[in-house]
Amino acid sequence: MAIFKCGSCGYERNVPEKLVGRKAKCPDCGVGVAIVDHLDGEESVEVDFEGESPAEEPARTAPVDGNDGVPLTSLNLDDQDVEIDLDGPDDVICPACGHVLESGYAGNCPQCGAPLDPADTIPDIDEADVDVSDLAETEVPQVWDEDFNEESGDSEILAGPEDPDRWRFMQGSFSLNLYAGIVSGVLLLFLVYALSLLVVSRAGLHELLPYILGTALTGVLVGAIVNSLFSRIPFLLVGPETVLTGVLFLFVGNMYQAMADVYDPDFILPTILAGVAVAAFFTGLSLFLLGKLRLGEFVRYIPLQIIGGVIGGVGFFILLGAFDGMAQLNLDWSNIYTIATSFSSNFRPMETVRTAGPSVAFGLVVFMAMFRSKNSVFLLFMVLAASGMGFAAGIWGMSEPIRALAAPVSFPVGAKLIHPVEIFNSWLLVQNIQWGIIKANGLYIGALAVLSVLTVMFRTTKLEILRGRESDLNVEYNALGVSNMISGACGGMPVSLSYGRSMGGYAAGGRGPVTGIVTGVVCGVGLFYADTVLPMIPRFVPEGLLIYVCLDLIRDWVFRTRTAFTSRHEKWLLRLTFLTTICLGLLEGIGFGVALALMVTVSRASRGGVVRNFLTGSNHSSNVDRAPAQKRTLKEFGDHIHIMRLQGFLFLGSMEQLIKEIRVRLDDRNKLPVEYLVLDFTLVNGFASAASIGFDKLRTLVLEYGIECVITNAPLELEEHLEEMGLVGEDEGLFKVFFNLDYAMEWCEQLVLDSENMLEMKERALPELLAPVFPEPKYIPALMKVLKREVAKTGEAIFRQGDKSDSMFFVESGRLDVELEMEDGKILRLKKVGPGAVFGEMGIYTLAPRSATIRAAEKCVLYRLTLDKLDAIEKRAPMLVTAVNRFLINLLSERLADANAKVRDLLL
Q1: What confidence tens digit (pLDDT) does each residue in 802-833 have?
Q2: pTM of the model
Q3: DSSP track, 133-199
Q4: Which residue segment(s) compose the domain that 321 sits in?
């Protein structure tokens, strides 16, 4: 809920969240006030409505010591002996003229002559007898009312702040967006060239390079522009992506292999181009439906290790395909056995070094240079520099191997690029499409859709961290789905979100959709000038880029998915899916991985929600006995402490749900604002690797709201991860880590009491501490006469576990620890007691040995009541003993009620 609060008259109410940023007049005083999602302190945002402002109310005054006109707000009652008699006789007021007479006056009013009734005969006024309907004003509809009309002049609404997720053409600097778009577009041209070489790397497919390059550039042109118009991540960039192109490489190769010896080229070309277009369209349709049905968030529950193993296998096949195209190995891609056999028989080391050596060397150089960076400008510089050096080698090279570096990729005779629409314009060729071949390889289209869904989820989540706030994954699925469907309708290749290019464009200054639009336009220009540009690019540059993206893909998904939370069984899941994909094939690996992911996800999700209990500092306190005034303060202000006891296995989906539940509480204006967020991990039994992304988002949330985040019972891997992130430390750490929930609550309570000036209470004598809680305060002086005052030094044991019970103690000052000595010699702190507390009382009632050790944590002043003294005063002053018994019964009842409340809250 949003909040409307007038700073002039104090009028306040909750309104729907959709009205945040809008303005409305206060129904009470007419001041224009902006609706906000939260209030900082008591501030409100006032705006002028046609120059109107409420009349200033004069300061209220009251006579004090004969001085009239002193403002009430300036009186210091602590420095004056002001007594107010609330029980004195009332003045007599004439009901007819309002004349005030002295108390006790009877007869007629000397002012108007009306008869006066004695004060005790004036009847009580019932609420039903009061009619104030004539004073009620007609309420003007406000912005939160159903009958509100924005065109009404009675309640003028001013334009509020723009929604940060609303699409705006101009976001950030136009010049920087233009610059980032040009850099990304030129770099994407080289990458599209490299990925197109991968698709046609199989023997016999090289003749299709101009057509495949046309589908790729069409996909970028359409996808980049359309996605920039629909996405709500303004700097997001899309294009042909390595994983999807790897699946497309196998898809096109299988279709060609099924048709090569049976059909003429006039049938093969339109069938392959139609298959690419159909793959793009159905991939987009799958994404669109997933977003439309709002199922995107459920994808976050799929384990990343299983995805990483499959995509790592795709990277392995891409690397083999790249070598096949560069060294012309003519591999048989029927299965893993035929691939291995053909590779071993066709591999010629010297010839491979001569043909593929420069490409492999350039790819390794780029991979090492970009190992820790995603800087698009630097990568483009390396590509352009390599292209320039290769071109220069062809002109000034002194030997044939040096001049050979300038050799471009050999193109078929004719145009270097042919747009697929030109093919589909020929009705005869469209009739030659063999839809049965496309249908027989339809599982590859399904693989494209599955991998697109999974990779987009992961990359969108990482971009949320870069962006600093959450994004609606369903909206991004919708945007990318529409982009792919339009791309497929235009004969383009499937496109997907690129984290590396998006981050690179962001680093180059791209902050808005202009970057994506310019990127698409640059690649669109490539559709018309490729014939001129491509022969100038040395072959080793696009082939080296292909080596780089293959290695980067394997590194990101096989190695970088490992974090401090990666358990042993998750590592085996990754290895298993990776080996299955390599040994059995891509489709089999994806099927195995999806089945395994579903089983693991269901197993994890079936263990219950991520939060076991929601507690607050008002109903769950530390084991510290505090003074009654401090307990009342914690009851009143304890909601500043919000406790969430987590459970089960934490993975990306559950962490996402946790972040949402935390944000709901932080935005709740019906409760005190959260200042201390306590996350207890006692019941957590493990972490998925992707949970690290959830903690990154938690850090962003903590910084956004400016709260203290407290971690308790943290597992070792969590502490190690938080230390690596720099989130924990002695003083400056963003997160505070405590041994258990009790110590964490004590730390939070100390800060709450300190903020309310109740931490360092004025030192009081024991009678003052007992007065508010002792049933018969008049017996306190008598009780003090039979108590023996004792002083305990720091570290001194008042009594030990197993000692004889012969006395009870009242604490006047200082603090003591209640310790339990375990059988293995360990000491467990049960609670802490402070001024006003009582301990040892159960022993003198049950005569059982002491159940725990009481040790002074600092210098303490105690008062001892022995069992002998209690027996003596029971005979001489039974009323005093009764008062003591009632006091202890009340104390024990309060403890029992608190314990019951804790148990109830923990069981809910």
Answers
A1: 898 889 999 998 889 998 888 777 787 788 88
A2: 0.64
A3: GGGPPPPPP-TTSTT--TT-TTS-----PPPTTS--S--S-HHHHHHHHHHHHHHHHHHHHHHHHHH
A4: 174-534+541-604
